[in-house]
Known about the structure:
With 416 residues, the chain is mainly beta. It is 9% helix and 40% strand.
Amino acid sequence: MDRTPRSFAWFLVAVVAAAVGLCSTVTAHDRGDGTPDATPVLLGAGRLSPPEGAADQDASGSVHFKQRGERNAIHVDVRGLEPGATYDVQVTSGDKTEKIGSITTHDGTPPPPRCFKAKLTVPADGGDPADGGDGNEGDPGDDGSDGADGGGGFHGDGGPRGYALFHLNQERTQLRYWIAARGLGGVASATLKIGDAAIALDAEELTGSIDVTEEQVAALAAGTASVSVVGAGEGAVEISGPLEICFAESRERRAARRAGRGTLRIDTARGDTLPLGAQTVANLVGATFSVLDAAGGVVLSGSVAELLEGGFHRDGGDGRDPPGADEPCEADLARPDPAVDPDATGEVEIEGEELEVEVWRLAPFTSYDVVLIEPGEGGGAATIGQVKTGWSGGANQEFVAKEGVPLPFGKTKISD
């Protein structure tokens, strides 16, 4: 099909706006009859700062209140603390103090991978591709580079070759795959090898999904799986290659940035109780929130000074937010209906002052606009940059707020 940059720009308009809406408090939900179903939201935020003399003066954080109807939520975010350490969080008002939970900071380890790729070539020595004999030099970069110097694309002459992309669902129980191959005179068979298991894939469509076990998912992450495709042409040429983690370098960088960060969430919509007997977060305005280390020392503290009406928040229909709201700044990208590209997929994440977009299964060596839509009626659209796919049709791009560079919609921070 025709996968043009402009057409996919509007695909991203839909999916990025929908995903970022999970982080936004200024969205509206259509009841289905054309009228908005919106509930006013009261919002408040305060900075958490290290006390004078604290060992780590670079630590920082924030506390956020949200009240929408009967729902009340508190989010305590910290950063710059010791990676992998656990901190207690307490709130004090007058002569009353209550521990409300604890935060274990990110230790800097990347989360379990969900995306895997394989470059398929004719094995140089006929060995098992999982042992490294796949001629995988010159693989296009994880950063979306075009790989033109590596001789890995589908352009030009290069003999039989191909590419495979695998993506786990969120439950990590199903593996979706997409394979492209050329120079084989058709495909007779396609196989995924995980440990001792050889799983037959759809050789006609070269796309589909399979159920996987925890052991098989672990083998994928360990790099012990491989893919082979046998041609239907003369000589039954086979191409194969080991599965590798997508965007491995960017995953390491992102995990390193998360080290020392953490969040505590209290939400009455999931059955949590507000501290100090408060009926709403309004009763906690002015209370001091403190983050304590293992020795009981205060490393951060602060309060919320006031609540303001902050717009509207999407209602999931049962008084709760849509699925995924407990992790409001990460979301899978979804295709519109009808889809411009029926097999495109991706993820979007907002972390602090950084927005990252990852996309897969697009046209190789192609640039696509990334467009945001301002939430609310009559919201504008703004192109914030581009992603350029590599040989695999995948790319990831981080958009970072820079001092002095204006952001769309008059915002001063990406987190806004």
